[in-house]
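Before a colleague's protein record goes any further, I have to sign it off. What it holds is a sequence and that sequence's fold in token form. My question to you is simply how this chain folds and whether the tokens agree. Thanks in advance; the entry in question is below:
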Amino acid sequence: MDLEGALDLATPELVSFVGAGGKKTAMTRLVSEGRGHRRIGYTTTTHMPPPGPELVVGDVDRVEAAIEDRLAADAPLAFASEYVEDPDRVDEKVRGFEPDEVDALYAAGHFDRLLVKADGARMREFKAPDVDEPPVPTASTVVVPVASARAIGTVLSEAVVHRPERVATIAPVGVGDVITPDVVGRVLASESGGCKNVPEGARVVPMINKADDGGDHERARQALEIAFDLTDRFDRGLVTSFETGTMTVVSA
């Protein structure tokens, strides 16, 4: 699996991930692919689980002080502003930076790849953003709206979907209805869904993850083809299974 190649990444790039069903896994994959020959930064404009011993927590000045040493050693730099205040979750989540702070760090030229988790989904398989979401940095050069193939065929409910009422408005369907490829495709293509807050000049590459078997793969492809018919923002989409290590690039 060559995710960097499938996304057609140049140097430098600020890649923001939104949606649900594989943002963190995709970012981790790009870190692995670039380790040792790319200067990689990894952060969030919302919250994220601490990604391990490479994490630096502090204000922008502290992050900038850590950049030179970490990147000179060919090591990725994960960074966040603070640990969450809830003592029951302090080991589970860190808070990131405002989009304009991420923009400034990217503009400073520190990174070949700056990867940003720019949305939250509370571990659900699918979502549509609320009115004040997602906080996508305006310097983003690539935005990847993510959905999970496992959502297709399930019932539109809070058990599977973060903000199901927003999905219902976009699709349009009713909460409690079955999520079809049409529903997923419509949300990915919508300016109120997967394309919301995407900077005008950014490339947008939708990714449907967790397509772990042939049926999932076919339904994911159907959803992408529906999305392609609804917007000209996409020149390709990805059907992935990080579990099985497979990926298909679907041309628009």
